[in-house]
Amino acid sequence: MAALAAYRCIECNEEATELYRDYQRGVLRISICKSCQKPVDKYIEYDPVIILINAVLCKAQAYRHILFNTKINIHGKLCIFCLLCEAYLRWLQLQDSSQNTDPDDLIRYAKEWDFYRMFGIASLEQTSFFIGIFITLWWMTPEMLKRKSDFILLLKALLLSTYGKLLLIPAVIWEHDYTPLCLAFIKVFVLISNSQAIRVTLNLNRILPWFAIFSGLILENGVVCLFQKMGWDV
Asked: Rounded CA gap, 51 and 53, in Å?
């Protein structure tokens, strides 16, 4: 039997003490939500591929399953990996705009430093984006973010919802086979995933998450403008 914990019903978002009950001899029964009278989490019987497809389709039930009823601990690694991909793409674009082909060690060192700089810029942009979201949500719905655990849960949800940036991997592999349209599509998809993660985590309507994301984008673009005024290529 599943350990007693604060699970969530994927249909109505009410808390549940267990996902299923084990009657031994291989007999399992999915728990029924006391609020909506539906299975607490039907996804525990689904193949991970089906769950991933539903998450890509931004279904709230799939997000609740992943965020509340599973023990996924790849938030930090996923974030760093996505930032590395983004930094590498920016670094490639910077190298394409440079006509210097001198193989001198100093030039190679400078190019390597450019990659680290792009990684730092991408990290600061994402951090400012998240800060903008947190400030807006804390201002609009302070009752939803009373405890430190609420902030941590929302941060994990936002980090996981950036999984759409993994679509940058083909661009990294085939280098120049990407287009601005493809990158714009990835950006929009990540924003939609962020919105759904906020909505599911805090149980909000559809409008407020987008307002928070818009505020985050404003702060992120402000950081970009600051870097550009400093003469840095971003």
From this structure: 5
Q: What's the pLDDT score for residue 193?
A: 96
Q: Which amino acid is at 36?
A: C
Exposure on the CB side of residue 67, measured as CA atoms within 13 A: 33
100: left (phi over 0), alpha (psi -120 to 50) or beta: beta
C-alpha–C-alpha distance, residues 208 and 216, integer Å: 12
DSSP H stretches of helix in 35-104: 48-56, 60-68, 75-97
8: left (phi over 0), alpha (psi -120 to 50) or beta: beta
- Cα–Cα–Cα angle for 63, 67, 71, nearest 5°? 135
Residues 6+ apart with CB under 8 A from 100: 107
Spans of the chain, pLDDT less than 50: 1-4, 105-106
State how far the Cα of 129 lies from the Cα of 1, in Å rounded to an integer: 40
